[in-house]
């Protein structure tokens, strides 16, 4: 399979006097590297690798035009001439690889997590603690001037263009949408007045940078909030943007305060391409569609069907910098597919940590992950083919070591196989397939169904124990009753639950198990139409903001999810996805109980005490999701023995830590 298999995806696109060599735009992602001048060499290497990997055109993370536009305190901004030099590190690196790069200008408006934020009105955002100051007419003109100045400085820094961020609920969007703009002057009220701010920024920027500098406008096409823009307004603004001189229109989906998932793994692939298609026939300027496009065939199908002219892939470039190049050369099995988990990218950024990637810990840390050929090639045993063992063994073998990988089960993947069984986490299978390919590619000697003893490991130069975890069995009276099922037996299909179920444990595994139990056919992925119905998305976008009444499909079972702690269930879930899991189970009618003491399990069901009141849950089965215990029986305190993954630390299942730990050890030995 080569570029010939994706003819539309690899068709060049002329924009002004520039030619984009394929139809893939690397979408903007805030990594945290943008915020400190000292990190720009690191950021340059990050972008250099994506340009070398043949991204058609790259868009940087958001850079504010001034301090009021900061996303957070001291985040990246470009307002002064002395700041240009650091950006040239980026543009030089990209241009040396023959790539194109645009800088995103992002003013956070009321989303700014700092006391200097401003907006169209003084309405406070529900996701930040700071109330914005309402911009006066004079200060509106000053903001426009700062956008234009920022674009001119970007041009001076040798960027090929800018993307003006007009979506996702940031400042420009706050002027456009009636939800946040009820001004009664020339900048609010009517559609013409609400869009004036955006149009003035584009018109004045175009006048300042000339006709050949690329201007991408990120247009909010589906806001997913009440009192938002309608499809007629979106189309009208798209036409006005074309007339104002934009080179490309990029699709913006949802606001950060929207209570609808837009990029998490449960969103079907290309789940919002239909939005871009609604606008496509109305304008002639190239349109980019976005969200949950992570495979070249998905991208090809979108372009081929005429839904969009280009596709935006953001997180997939974290997972694999060379995904476009591999698509062109036919090495599709070699692509490390983004699984949309958010655990090391968005979750990190929203905690003010450097972004990375669960399946590729080298992302944003490229200069720290350099695989060198070892001076002495060793014979190394790795015990356990979960995420830690797989990442370690494939890294060792890639460097040139002889590696034997022992796995007690009949297949690789460990606990990741259980995660892949959860509805909405089907993408996790790709990571297992990827490692299967790498084992073969790098010549790892895989021994399945192998129960290893210490004697089996005696002849190896180095031994890596990555034997993972087993479910923790709590000391509850009746824990050996026939009603009891351990979570791994349920998710692996070895056991089946009845219609009434109690789930002990409300951490990540408890939520996953409850989602699995709540669906009639957990192995059947949702269609786009089913997803839109569940989350109340109006596919006509005739309603303001594109929201309609959600279709609340009740759980296939009666489910109680219980925890000993009195804190909110799922407190440790991912920052950007936890709310989705909590809301999804609530919509399905799953009952949650906190502060629970477990008394016993018998034929009557599960006996519990809550707030000193005893009760019996009449359930068919009790699913145990009460944590894990490390499998470290084979580990020895010797210099040539190493322990990683769940065998090292049996916390909440943490594939991110396991893959990173395995990779780092694989680079070190």
UniProtKB/TrEMBL annotation:
<dbReference type="InterPro" id="IPR013785">
    <property type="entry name" value="Aldolase_TIM"/>
</dbReference>
<protein>
    <submittedName>
        <fullName>2,4-dienoyl-CoA reductase (NADPH2)</fullName>
    </submittedName>
</protein>
<keyword id="KW-0560">Oxidoreductase</keyword>
<keyword id="KW-0411">Iron-sulfur</keyword>
<dbReference type="Pfam" id="PF00724">
    <property type="entry name" value="Oxidored_FMN"/>
</dbReference>
<dbReference type="InterPro" id="IPR051793">
    <property type="entry name" value="NADH:flavin_oxidoreductase"/>
</dbReference>
<dbReference type="InterPro" id="IPR023753">
    <property type="entry name" value="FAD/NAD-binding_dom"/>
</dbReference>
<keyword id="KW-0288">FMN</keyword>
<keyword id="KW-0479">Metal-binding</keyword>
<keyword id="KW-0285">Flavoprotein</keyword>
<dbReference type="InterPro" id="IPR036188">
    <property type="entry name" value="FAD/NAD-bd_sf"/>
</dbReference>
<feature type="domain" description="FAD/NAD(P)-binding">
    <location>
        <begin position="379"/>
        <end position="640"/>
    </location>
</feature>
<feature type="domain" description="NADH:flavin oxidoreductase/NADH oxidase N-terminal">
    <location>
        <begin position="8"/>
        <end position="329"/>
    </location>
</feature>
<comment type="similarity">
    <text>In the N-terminal section; belongs to the NADH:flavin oxidoreductase/NADH oxidase family.</text>
</comment>
<dbReference type="GO" id="GO:0010181">
    <property type="term" value="F:FMN binding"/>
</dbReference>
<keyword id="KW-0408">Iron</keyword>
<dbReference type="Pfam" id="PF07992">
    <property type="entry name" value="Pyr_redox_2"/>
</dbReference>
<dbReference type="GO" id="GO:0016491">
    <property type="term" value="F:oxidoreductase activity"/>
</dbReference>
<dbReference type="InterPro" id="IPR001155">
    <property type="entry name" value="OxRdtase_FMN_N"/>
</dbReference>
<dbReference type="GO" id="GO:0051536">
    <property type="term" value="F:iron-sulfur cluster binding"/>
</dbReference>
<dbReference type="GO" id="GO:0046872">
    <property type="term" value="F:metal ion binding"/>
</dbReference>
């Amino acid at each position: 399979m080569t570029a010939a298999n994706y003819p539309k995806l690899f068709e060049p696109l002329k924009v002004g006097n520039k030619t984009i060599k394929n139809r893939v735009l690397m979408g903007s992602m805030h990594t945290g590297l943008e915020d400190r001048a000292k990190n720009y060499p690191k950021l340059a290497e990050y972008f250099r690798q994506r340009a070398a990997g043949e991204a058609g055109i790259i868009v940087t993370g958001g850079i504010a035009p001034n301090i009021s536009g900061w996303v957070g305190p001291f985040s990246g901004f470009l307002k002064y001439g002395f700041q240009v030099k650091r950006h040239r590190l980026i543009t030089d690196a990209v241009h040396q690889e023959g790539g194109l790069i645009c800088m995103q200008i992002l003013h956070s408006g009321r989303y700014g997590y700092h006391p200097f934020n401003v907006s169209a009105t003084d309405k406070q955002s529900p996701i930040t603690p700071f109330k914005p100051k309402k911009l006066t007419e004079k200060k509106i003109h000053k903001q426009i001037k700062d956008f234009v100045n920022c674009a001119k400085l970007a041009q001076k820094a040798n960027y090929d263009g800018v993307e003006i961020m007009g979506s996702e609920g940031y400042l420009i969007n706050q002027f456009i949408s009636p939800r946040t703009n009820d001004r009664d002057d020339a900048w609010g009220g009517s559609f013409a007045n609400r869009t004036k701010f955006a149009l003035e920024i584009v018109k004045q920027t175009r006048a300042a940078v000339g006709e050949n500098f690329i201007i991408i406008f990120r247009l909010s096409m589906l806001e997913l909030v009440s009192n938002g823009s309608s499809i007629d307004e979106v189309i009208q603004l798209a036409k006005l943007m074309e007339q104002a001189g934009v080179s490309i229109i990029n699709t913006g989906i949802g606001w950060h305060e929207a209570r609808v998932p837009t990029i998490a793994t449960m969103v079907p692939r290309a789940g919002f391409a239909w939005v871009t298609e609604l606008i496509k026939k109305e304008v002639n300027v190239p349109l980019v569609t976005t969200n949950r496009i992570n495979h070249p065939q998905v991208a090809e199908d979108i372009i081929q069907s005429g839904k969009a002219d280009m596709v935006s892939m953001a997180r997939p470039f974290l997972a694999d910098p060379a995904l476009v190049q591999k698509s062109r050369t036919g090495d599709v099995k070699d692509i490390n597919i983004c699984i949309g988990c958010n655990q090391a990218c968005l979750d990190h950024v929203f905690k003010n940590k450097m972004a990375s990637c669960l399946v590729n810990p080298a992302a944003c840390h490229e200069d720290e992950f350099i695989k060198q050929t070892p001076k002495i090639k060793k014979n190394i045993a790795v015990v356990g083919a979960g995420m830690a063992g797989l990442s370690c063994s494939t890294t060792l073998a890639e460097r040139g070591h002889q590696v034997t990988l022992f796995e007690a089960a009949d297949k690789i993947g460990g606990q990741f196989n259980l995660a892949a069984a959860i509805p909405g986490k089907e993408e996790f299978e790709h990571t297992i397939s990827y490692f299967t390919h790498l084992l073969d590619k790098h010549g790892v000697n895989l021994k399945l169904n192998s129960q290893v003893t210490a004697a089996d490991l005696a002849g190896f130069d180095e031994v890596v124990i990555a034997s993972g975890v087993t479910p923790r069995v709590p000391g509850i009276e009746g824990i050996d009753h026939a009603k009891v099922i351990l979570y791994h037996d349920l998710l692996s299909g070895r056991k089946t639950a009845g219609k009434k179920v109690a789930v002990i444990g409300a951490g990540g595994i408890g939520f996953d198990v409850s989602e699995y139990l709540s669906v009639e056919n957990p192995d059947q992925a949702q269609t786009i139409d089913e997803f839109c119905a569940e989350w109340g998305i109006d596919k006509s976008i005739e309603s303001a903001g594109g929201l309609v009444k959600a279709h609340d499909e009740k759980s296939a079972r009666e489910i109680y999810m219980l925890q000993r702690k009195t804190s909110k269930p799922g407190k440790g879930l991912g920052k950007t996805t936890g709310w989705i899991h909590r809301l999804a189970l609530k919509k399905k009618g799953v009952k949650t109980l906190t502060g629970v003491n477990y008394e016993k399990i018998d034929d009557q069901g599960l006996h519990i005490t809550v707030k000193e009141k005893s009760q019996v849950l009449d359930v068919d089965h009790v699913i145990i999701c009460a944590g894990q215990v490390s499998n470290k029986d084979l580990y020895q305190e010797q210099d040539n023995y190493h322990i990683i993954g769940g065998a090292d630390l049996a916390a909440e299942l943490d594939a991110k830590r396991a893959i990173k730990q395995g990779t780092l050890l694989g680079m070190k030995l």
